[in-house]
Structure formats: C-alpha cells, structure tokens
Design a protein that fits this description.
Rossmann fold; single chain; 7 helices; globular; 2 domains; five-stranded parallel sheet; 5 strands
Length: 179
C-alpha cells in the first residue's frame, strides 16, 4: 500500500526523488510547492483534436477511459458492468452527458458498447492519437467537465490535471482518492 509522507514536500534544495508520485497528497503538495506545472501540456495540435476539445467545452462532457492491454493480460481488467454502473450513476446526476471514450482498445469498446452502458447514450470514440501522440488523449481527458475514473494511472493523472475542478467524478477505484 502506498504511503504518504508530508515532510517530503517541505524539503529544500536540489533533491532527486524516485517515487510513485500520482498519490493524490504528493501531487497536491508538489503542485502547491510549484514543483509541478498546473497544466503540463503543450498547445493542442491537430484539427480533429481541436474539434474534440470544442465539443468537450460545449457539452456536459464525460471522460471515460477503458484500459485493456496489459490489464487484461495480468487480470486487472475492470469488468464492463462496473463501467455501466458508473455511466448509469453519472447519467442520473448530469443532464444530457456526452461520453468521450478513450481506450487502448477502441474496437473492444465499440463491440461491447451495450455492456459498457453506452448503447442509448451520446458517445464519441476518441481516435487518432497513437504512439508518440498518445499524451494528447490525456490532455483531452483533462478538458472534460466530468469523469469516470478507472484504476489506470493514465486516467488518474488526467483526473488530477483536470481543468474543471467542480465536475462530477465517479471513481471506480474508491481506494484511490482523487483530489
């Protein structure tokens, strides 16, 4: 279980730390100490991504990240029913949400749209940001007003860097607090 040591954020001087720094307390303390940029991304690039960003800002946008890849291989996959519960809960609390679906396996998401709870909902599948541009997916996720957060570090970091601090968060991993 990760630990949090508040004294670390008070240390002075040039010190190198090798830590798992997406623990919410560390993130917030390091951000307050100006050790982390409040928004670490370069200007958004690409017409398609600019269109996604405009839609996110003009709707009740929801970032939904479905991680598959190595999670499936090591047995850490979140079952689609859990995503569906998150989608249903958020839909009860947000009027007319638009779900922006991010994944390393969009084919799976499209094939399992019903199990994920997105069949009768406005869902946009984010495509095109691969390899060295996959950080743009995280950047876009930060622009959504609301989010359904899984156990993925990618998703968790996007939640920490989110632009809208008042949006609703459905956390599928309640043991990991999001600040």
């Amino acid at each position: 279980m990760p630990s949090y040591f508040p004294a670390v954020s008070k240390n002075k001087g040039l010190i190198y730390y090798h830590v798992y720094a997406i623990i919410g307390h560390y993130f917030n303390d390091l951000k307050k100490a100006n050790c982390i940029n409040s928004y670490p991304f370069p200007p958004l690039k690409g017409e398609k991504n600019e269109k996604y960003a405009a839609e996110m800002k003009s709707t009740e946008s929801v970032a939904l990240h479905v991680r598959r890849g190595d999670s499936v291989q090591i047995g850490w996959e979140i079952p689609p029913e859990l995503y569906r519960k998150g989608v249903e809960e958020l839909s009860k609390r947000v009027n007319n949400p638009t779900f922006f679906v991010f994944s390393d396996d969009l084919k799976y998401c499209k094939e399992h749209i019903e199990e994920l709870g997105l069949m009768e909902r406005n869902a946009i599948f984010i495509e095109g940001n691969e390899r060295s541009n996959n950080y743009i997916d995280m950047q876009l996720m930060t622009m959504c007003k609301h989010r359904i957060v899984s156990h993925s570090s990618f998703c968790f970091c996007a939640a920490l860097y989110r632009e809208d601090r008042d949006g609703l968060i459905i956390n599928l991993n309640p043991d990991r607090k999001i600040f």
